[in-house]
Amino acid sequence: MSDPTALPNLTPTSGQGGAAPAGGDGAEQPAEEPLGQRVQEALTSLGLEASTDDDGDVAFTFEEQQLFVRTDDGTNVMRVFGQWRLEEPVPTDDVERLSICNDVNVAFNLVKTAVANDTLLVTSEHILPRNADVRGLLGIAVPLVLQGVQVWHQRATGQVPGEEGEESAQGGQDGSADPQPGQSGQAQG
Q: Region (Disordered): which ranges (predicted)?
């Protein structure tokens, strides 16, 4: 295990090797469009209708699931997420639900799951470098969020991915099966 006190100082530097001034002179690279705007443009180029909701998140529907992207231009963080109301046949025990979240979190590198107030939250968060390919990242992150929901639901209901039977007859891992936990219709933002 690494000693966290031995980590290098990763202070941003300018092209000349010195520390970058706090404000920067703006002469090196042109300013990028705000991340939220770049996300909306990327979703549109992927053939998805995007809008901004009351919370300032970019809302869109993918595979009949309501999803959101929250951005922070100050830190260049992009969070793709959805929320699903948990209902039968999902277990009601909080410890069991959180144990399933932990299993999914360990299994995926880019997806996090959590449960709060009978709602499953599945996210994929990314810190974007300058000039990042937002469209390409969304093309990966959005299906991963839905895959995380599907895996969570399979574990919660005792289904084994790839096992022959009812799940395979409903579509299974090809994405045609309904990935939402419980019996709820759409994600909530």
A: 1-37, 156-189
The predicted pLDDT at position 27 comes to 56
Contact 106, 148 (CB under 8 A): no
Rounded distance between C-alpha atoms, residue 139 and residue 145, angstroms: 11
Q: Tally the domains of the chain.
A: 1
Residue 24 lies in a domain: no
Q: Report pTM.
A: 0.70
CATH code (residue 150): 3.30.1460.10
181: phi then psi, degrees, rounded to nearest 5: -70, 150
Neighbours of 108 (CB within 10 A): 17
In-domain check, residue 11 = no
Cα–Cα distance, 155 to 167 (Å, whole number): 12
Whether 132 contacts 119, CB under 8 Å = no
Is pLDDT of 21 > 60? no
- Residue 4 is assigned to a structural domain of this protein: no
